Structure formats: C-alpha cells, structure tokens
Amino acid sequence: MTAELGFVHRFEPGGSRATLLVLHGTGGNEHDLIGLARELAPAAKLLSPRGKVLENGAPRFFRRLAMGVFDEADLKAQAADLARFVKEAAERYGFDAGRVYALGYSNGANIAAALMLLHPEALAGGALLRPVLPLEPPALPDLSGKAAFLAAGNRDPWAPGERVEALASWLERAGAEVELRWQDAGHELHPQELEAAQAWLARHLDG
C-alpha cells in the first residue's frame, strides 16, 4: 500500500498485458476487492485506489447530495483526478495505459462509468457491478473499440432499472460493445453473475 500519486492505493503485479483498475463501493478501501479481482482475472495486474471523499467517515469516489443524487461538479472533478492517477500509475509501474479495464462495484462502478463517459482514453472498458448512469456527459464520447459488462439486480433499490438502462444506452450510442446482464437480486452480488463477469474479462483482457 502506498499514498503516492495522490491516492492511497495498492498495486499487484501480474503476467497479463492488461491491468484491472479495482474500484471499491461506499465504505470500502483499496484492499476490499483485491481477492475478487484476483479470482476473476488471475493473471491481470491490479491497481486499486481508495476513494478520497468521505461520507460520515466512509470512503467514496465522489460526493452525493442524497441517496441516488450525485454531486455532478464533484463527480467531474474526481473523475478527472482518477484519470490522471491511472495515467501516472502506468508510468510509475510500467503497465500499458491502453489496456486498463475497470472492475468496479456500486460507487466504484459509477466512477468507472464516469471515466468511460468523460475520459474515454483512461479505460479500454470495464466490468461494472451494480452501476447506474452517474451523469449525462456534455458530449457523446467516442467509445468505439471499447467494451463494458454491466451486472444489474432487478430488485436493487440503489440502482433503479431505468438508470441502468440509461447507462447502457449512452455507452452503446458512444460505440461501446455492451453486455447488460440482469440478476434476480438486490444490491448484493451472486455467484452466477460473477462467473459471467469472469468469462467476460477472460475474453477481453488479453483478446
């Protein structure tokens, strides 16, 4: 663990050409999803930052004004800072900045979606677990050649179906290849969708 490059973070080497940007949910940290990331992508390099915004002491990647209401100004600023971090981390650790995929859950999935929409150069794609459309970008980005796996729960009170569908629509209109998978679940994750995410990552990380 290190606080270099502006984020407390953890970097794990791997034999793959690809790097997973591992993004925790609200209240998590740079260690929370390392085990899951290693299970889903055994050979990938792992870059796991801790969100810098605190909500009642719980780390997040951007502020929210109320449940489901995001502070868009802060979201844009934090997404820009995270994009900078990924670029500088690629130089620091010697990984390919063009082969970075996100693995994000909840708040982490939403900042990953914001990266794709606002800073498309930062990610080649991502597996986003329980995401919503975090904001409407000012212009349609060019996501041609990029891909996203969205894992949604049809009983998820934190990620309403229409906001999940809106994210998929924006990504598709921007040219991304999108796989949207619905699970009969709430905000919790199930083994079947993690298996699907693992298969998706296996196809894309070194494809």
From TrEMBL:
The keyword Hydrolase applies. Residues 17-204 form the Phospholipase/carboxylesterase/thioesterase domain. Keywords: Hydrolase. GO terms for molecular function: hydrolase activity. Pfam families: Abhydrolase_2. Its EC number is 3.1.-.-. The keyword Hydrolase applies. SUPFAM superfamilies: alpha/beta-Hydrolases. Belongs to the AB hydrolase superfamily. AB hydrolase 2 family. This is Putative hydrolase MhqD. It comes from Calidithermus terrae. The gene is mhqD.
